[in-house]
Each structure stands twice: as C-alpha cells, then as structure tokens.
Amino acid sequence: MTQTSVIQTFGDFTQQIPSSQEYLTLNFSPTAAARKRRWGNYGLSADFLGDYFAAFFPGDELPDSKINQRDTVKAAVSYVANELLENAVKYNDDSTGLPVSISLHLYDHQIIFHVINFANQAIAEKYQAFVQVLLASDLDEFYMTQLEKTAMGGGGSSMGVLTMMNDYSAQFGWQFQTLESMPNVVKVDVMAYLNV
User: Fold this and answer.
1) Which fold has domain 7-195?
2) What is the pLDDT of residues 3-37, one digit of tens each?
C-alpha cells in the first residue's frame, strides 16, 4: 500500500516565495546532542540575522519617534527569528536526521521569514489545533486569555507567536505535510511576514 502525503495549509502561506535580491538561509544540525550543547547559538543566530538585515535600512529616526529604522528592524528581526527558531528546534523530531532551517528574504517594505522543521505527528497535531483556534479567534481576546493562562502557570501558551502578531504585526502562514517516507513525521513550514 502506497502512502500519500497529506498537506494542510492555514493563514497566509505562500507556496512560492517571490525572488529577492537579498536573502539568507541557516541550517541547524538535527542531532539532539548538538542541539543541547549549542542552545545559546540559536539566540546568537537570531541576533546575527537582526544585525545583517538592519544594515540594509537607514539610521534615520522614524517619524514621531526617537528610534531609528535600523534599530527598529534589528530588534524586530532578532525577536521574530529567535522565537521562530527556538520553537522549530524545540519541537523538531531529531530522529528524522533532517535539519531545521530558517530563511529570511528582504523586500522593499517587508521581510519574509520561512522556517522548516520536522515534528512527530502528535506535536504537529497539537500545533495545528492551536493555529486553527488562533485563526478563528479575535487576536486581542486570545492574547489576553493566553496571558492569563501563563500567569496561572498553565504551560503551552504559545505566547511567542501571539507576541509576534500583537507587538510586531507579523502575519503568518502555516503548512503541515506528512512525509511519505516517514508517515509519523510532519514537515512544518512556518512563514512570517514582517512589514518594515
């Protein structure tokens, strides 16, 4: 019996990322031992991405603000990249031997983040259920509910995704695809769009 790949897409997921003059992709080793030893490197990688992409923006102050565009882009890219990367690495199924990757594509007024990891079926289903609830909810109300959940000690609040949407106006798209060669593994593609 042949396994078929099941694909489910949510939000603003784009099958083909438009070509850009500036982009950068980082891949991370799939082994758990290396991941545990290098956990701090993921934050450093996010900061590197922030520094790299901020260099393309002027240091001029933004209207009605003492913060300049370069610093704003640097902080936003670092935060979003760190959250996306930490989640991808945390929930990656290392037994697949497949790397976690993060790509950033720069456009005139937008940066697209594309993160790929490979999760076991149960983790992917839980994440997919969260995405469905998120997309069906009022963002402000859901954000407050999750803040309360976190304050009460409830785990799994997904505050990183909500903060990216609430504080940075990031838009998201998700695609979940079971692998034909490993039916208990789901390729999780996350796209985040950040206007700059």
Assistant:
1) Heat Shock Protein 90 (3.30.565)
2) 567 999 999 999 899 998 899 999 988 776 666 66
Identity of residue 111 = I
pLDDT in tens, 111-148: 999 999 999 999 999 999 999 999 999 999 999 988 88
pLDDT > 50? residue 161? yes
Strand order in the sheet with 110-120: 7-11, 171-178, 185-195, 110-120, 100-106, 22-28
Q: How confident is the model at residue 32, as a pLDDT?
A: 61
DSSP string, 53-69: HHTTS--PBPTT-SSBH
Tokens in use for 91? Answer: 């929930």
How crowded is residue 64: how many other Cβ atoms within 10 Å of its Cβ? Answer: 5
Quick one: 174 exposed, middle or buried, by C-beta within 10 A (0-12, 13-18, 19+)?
A: buried
CA distance linking residue 191 with residue 105, whole number of Å: 11
pTM as predicted: 0.89
Token match 């903060």: residue? 163
Give the separation between CA 95 and CA 140, rounded to whole angstroms: 38
Residue ranges covered by each domain of the chain: 7-195
Dihedral sign of CA atoms 130, 131, 137, 139 in order: positive
